[in-house]
Amino acid sequence: MIAVQEEGQNGLVFVRHLRENQIGLPAIILAAAYEPEVFRSAVADRAEYLVMAGAPDAWYPVLVQLVENILAVRRVQDKVLFLEKKLNLVGSVTRHDVLNQLTAVSGYTELLEMVVTDPQMKSYIEKERFALEKIRRQFQFAKDYQILGTEQPVWQPLSSVIRRAGDLVTVKGITVTDNCGTAAVLADIGLEKAVAQMLDNVVRHGKTATELRISAREEGEGGLVIFEDNGAGIPDADKERIFERGFGKYTGWGLFLVHEMLSLTGMTIVETGVPGKGARFEIHVPPESYRKEGKPKVT
User: Fold this and answer.
1) What is the CA radius of gyration of the chain?
2) Cβ atoms of 261 and 159 closer than 8 Å
3) How far apart are CA 151 and CA 220, in angstroms?
4) Which residues face 22 on adjacent strands?
């Protein structure tokens, strides 16, 4: 699709409308002259940008080459999509069958616990149940990680994401305060699971945490989303390691998954809290992925 950006024909508005409606149609913005703001907007909306400078003989061959490149990329994307579907099918069937057997083993374990009276044997059964739960969580991680980046990023109001994430995690005893107002981010559709992992992280590791505050504000040309609790905090030696795969007391994949999911749209996350006073996670959002659509409010 080719959209013209000149007086009376605002191609940027049309392309943005497509993206907001999750339409990933390839687009080329044609402009009579180079304008930095138009160029940045075109890049943000995943469109190519071409200046029609000089006679048609000068820029038309470039346009033809650009179209051919887009078509070549589209063919490769279609092939990759086909292979991804095959892999997803195999992964889905395998997880389904294994989890069914895991449910059966868990059921027999509970029955065994009902008839066993020896304290030492009961301790073995408890360890077995812990191992089964860890396997279940590992399969859930595999499912979440497999679907990362399979869909185009979409604009999501942070308050809505936090609300949906809260339905996925039990945060009993912790008050969650949303100060994000109407801020929105361009992120993977699984963003709510990343936020759910952040909530779960407070429950599991916050220890004395009773409050979690989530806020968003403009930072430079981009945005800054902050998760801050009043729990035990994170030791200085672990501040970078917590985002590594396998680090932690449980599966060790929670914050690793958050890091990976955010990176899909250029976001970064760091921990800047003071040990003993609470954890503070700062998510830096690039300019093209952040919108402050109104004044913040406390909910």
Assistant:
1) 24
2) no
3) 28
4) none
CATH of the domain at 222: 3.30.565.10
- Does residue 11 sit within a domain? yes
Task: Say whether both 216 and 162 belong to one domain.
Answer: yes
**Residue 126: Cβ within 10 Å count:** 12
Alpha helix (H) residue ranges in the chain: 11-20, 36-44, 56-115, 119-146, 158-166, 191-205, 254-263
Region for 114 from its dihedrals, namely left if φ exceeds 0, alpha if ψ lies in -120 to 50, beta otherwise: alpha
Residue with tokens 């599966």: 251
The residue out of 122, 146, 170 marking a domain boundary is: 146
Assess whether 112 and 169 both reside in one domain.
no
List b or e across 130-155, with b for residues whose CB sees 16 or more CB atoms inside 10 angstroms. Answer: eeeeebbeebebeebbebbbeeebbe
Token match 């609790």: residue?
A: 229
100-141 confidence digits (pLDDT tens): 898 999 999 999 989 999 999 999 999 998 888 878 877 877
Q: Are 218 and 253 part of one and the same domain?
A: yes
